[in-house]
Amino acid sequence: MTQKIFMNDRLVSREEATVSVYDHGLLYGDGVFEGIRVYGGKVFLLQEHVDRLYESALAIRLEIPLSPSAMFNAVTETVQANGIVDGYVRLVVTRGAGSLGLDIRRTSNPQVIIIADTITLYPEEIYQNGMELITASTLRNHPGALSPRIKSLNYLNNILAKIEGTDAGTLEALMLNHKGEVAECTGDNIFIIRHGIIKTPGTDAGILEGITRNTVIRLAREAGHEVRECPLTRHDIFVADECFLTGSAAEIVAVVSLDGRRIGTGKPGEITLDLRRRFQEFTQQ
Ligand code: PMP
Question: What's the predicted TM-score (pTM) here?
Answer without folding.
Answer: 0.98
